[in-house]
Amino acid sequence: MPDGECVAMAAMLPGLADEPLPVPDVADLDLPPSTVDVPATLSPFCSTGPEHRAGHTYGKAYRDVVRALRGDVRAAPDVVALPRTEAELVSVVDWAGSANVAVIPYGGGSSVVGGVEYRGGDHSGDHRGVLSLDLTRMDRVLEIDEVSRAARIQAGALGPVLEDQLRPHGLTLRHFPQSFEFSTLGGWLATRAGGHYATLYTHIDDLVESLRVVTPAGVSESFRLPGSGAGPSPDRLFLGSEGILGVITEAWMRVQDRPSHKASTSVSFSSFDAAVEATRAVAQSGLHPANCRLLDQGEAMFSGAGDGRNSVLVLGFESSIGPVDDRLALAVDIAGQHGGTARAGSGSGSGDAVEAWRSAFLRMPYLRDGLARMGAIVETFETATTWDRIGALITAVRTEVGAAVREICGADGVLNCRFTHVYPDGAAPYFTVIAPGRPGAELSMWDEIKAAASETLLKHRATVTHHHAVGRDHRPTYDRQRPEPFAAALRAAKNALDPNGILNPGVLI
Amino acid sequence: MPDGECVAMAAMLPGLADEPLPVPDVADLDLPPSTVDVPATLSPFCSTGPEHRAGHTYGKAYRDVVRALRGDVRAAPDVVALPRTEAELVSVVDWAGSANVAVIPYGGGSSVVGGVEYRGGDHSGDHRGVLSLDLTRMDRVLEIDEVSRAARIQAGALGPVLEDQLRPHGLTLRHFPQSFEFSTLGGWLATRAGGHYATLYTHIDDLVESLRVVTPAGVSESFRLPGSGAGPSPDRLFLGSEGILGVITEAWMRVQDRPSHKASTSVSFSSFDAAVEATRAVAQSGLHPANCRLLDQGEAMFSGAGDGRNSVLVLGFESSIGPVDDRLALAVDIAGQHGGTARAGSGSGSGDAVEAWRSAFLRMPYLRDGLARMGAIVETFETATTWDRIGALITAVRTEVGAAVREICGADGVLNCRFTHVYPDGAAPYFTVIAPGRPGAELSMWDEIKAAASETLLKHRATVTHHHAVGRDHRPTYDRQRPEPFAAALRAAKNALDPNGILNPGVLI
Hints:
2 copies of one chain form a homodimer.
Chain A (H helix, E strand, L loop, with lengths): L2 H8 L35 E2 L2 H6 L6 H8 L9 E3 L4 H14 L1 E6 L22 E6 L6 E5 L4 E5 L4 H8 L4 E2 L12 H7 L16 E8 L2 E4 L12 H5 L8 E8 L1 E2 L3 E9 L2 H12 L7 E5 L1 H6 L8 E9 L5 H13 L3 E2 L9 H22 L2 E7 L2 E2 H23 L4 E10 L2 E11 L5 H18 L15 H7 L2 H14 L12
Parallel strand pairs in A: 2-4, 3-4
Antiparallel strand pairs in A: 1-2, 5-6, 6-10, 7-11, 8-9, 8-10, 12-14, 12-15, 13-14, 16-19, 17-19, 18-19
Protein name (chains A, B): Alkyldihydroxyacetonephosphate synthase
Family (chains A, B): Belongs to the FAD-binding oxidoreductase/transferase type 4 family.
Cofactor (chains A, B): FAD
């Protein structure tokens, strides 16, 4: 983001810096010396170059951006491996196990929860060094089954890279997380990413036919199946395992015909509570909108989809076989029964609010970095809970996190809410907090806000993450949410598959 | 089933007995003496009565029916516990762990895969005795959340029992496996049962919000969540665990408004291959029919839905918000493009073929028992595979299993196929084999047919079970299908949660 834009944006919030922090040059970084020598067999695809090491130090969390801006790369991995084949990847994992080197699987590096940053081992003592295992050279669509509409895709493919390979076949994976350009299939699978669809196929999990996973105990490959009831799902154990059980190298994914019919509109509500009721009614209607995103007043204004007085429900339908205007009309009708006013001229075209929201959605990651450069604290957290609790949860977040922000930052800042995904039994609210930071204290301020937010989620029995993953940042809350017998089972599974404890230590368990 | 009906039915198949075998009286059974004395604290809800022990010996597999007809109850449990509360259930599990008594969780006893029959421990030597843990006294809907449309239901509730409790609220779980009357929520969850919906929500898994599970290592309770991305799903580890990790005692389930609009029809095809193509096109259309069941020529005739020359695709749509005739018309149109002829007058009423199929579906379990009493071998097996493999799979089953039946039974018998559930990327074919058995040799003949069927499924990388579970009968094939690292993880999880190995030993691992 150009410096001028950072300044313009920051002008919307009082208390920020006048000029953005400069982005440091990699040559100026004070990288600690690498303590790891890889064997000659691995060196053709391993690097200890400062660009590679610095570039693989962090994900894209706010704390990562702040530390990167400060030139703090103390957590840099000792070496970055960029295998070109699964055989090379296996040789890395095997060697790391024998050498007691921690292995951090790395796709696009878009983790916002400390998922790719080594912070020490969790129980078995320190590792002798840290290797970042970058999968992006394994980015091919290896096979396409047009009959079943499925594709075998290597885990290191970034979103646009895999879509480019599917497009000539008229197919699409249609998984568009906000990080789409900078995240990989393997990362989505390992973190149970949330995607394009607001209903029904909300997570990447729902698009998986089979997985191939390299574990220190051997390669796990499930049958390609449209459905099965044979024991607990093997794939579901690896989905969300965040690299602690194995490294996903490829997957057969359900792909789709590209949609030929779309219709979308936006519906305004003067009351947020009424908008929530309308959203619930649509979610429970069985209409299955592709888009069903509720923006509260602040979020609607921030994204340019509203004027700050109304909440906005963005609705969209799509199909590859026929018009969807009827379904949109039914959804709009339901929203109208709850006091919503649809934008005039809704239908097959896209409404202004729809476009504004879409544009803001895609730009948000850049905006976040720009705001960080102006000294703002930016925290986004997302969750999910059932409809019966959602009003109380949102009120509590506004009250409790709002109070924490005032106390920590000395100003109200911004606290907006939108729903990213909805279900018949609940919704996934996503909160954005922006407030002025004190230079040098940003990280501890952010930590305090994060802690306040997590406490509120826990108190309301809302999940610590609906689609951002647990990583290292959500560990304290995750540990208190997860059933203890399941934690015991997961630890046991980890010990069986990764007996030396080298895989992404400190994450999940 | 009255004796007269058995005789009439058997007349359709040459080579069967003239008279049905009599059903033995429980007083005539030669039950082995019970070797287990439960402590006084458990005795108020435990029984060693012959009715209880004999009644909990088997599930409802063909081999179970044959052995029951022979009066063979050597596998009877030593004692049956019928706890009324979770606290009582916990006390049973705790005591069994200390006494080295195997615990077989038992719901409706409808397993068709040897899921509730003790056949010895798998590794840690024999158990001192066997306890059947019957959950049917825990059958209450404990709480209903009408806002989120969810209900907290005890695991021992049989299908009709829980639906009776939901009905006054205008709600339904709408999970109708063929065993509906004789199976419980806990059984469905532990075995990943397939239900009412032919698309989308095919398995009970999809209706689960949270689970409560008693394990020897403590009680596991997940948060009620509409969706989450916090690590691997705890619920998905217990779903399909078939009682080896813990005993599911209750669950928050997603329930629904009762449908107010339905439309269904049947479409005939002279070519089975064309019917498969039509079914695939409907499955990939995004129309999400509630019913989309393809019957091959033989299955259509057998159920009274066809004349034996045509395959029949039964289509149904339903909604609680508005008419579904348009969606039915679109699906019929797609089927027509593949050569299908819709029954005249299709629409909101139900067609004759639809009713005939539904009636046959509900009566099949009785039919099976009746045929067994006439000396027939009856084997049903079901699977799932992707569309690209489905034609070859069905051909192979007809050829290879057909040949095995001829060799083993000396007659062609019946070998029919229907699809129970369909997906955008594949389908779940269900096969019925009926052939004349030789008195006294039925079980070994059935074993041989089962082995031939399993071998064909394995060769085509089709799942050993789409919704009947693994139990003990599918173990040999399951062991060869499951990724070995996942097996290692599951064994480790089992050891962590059930260190004494008392829970349903011999199942899954």
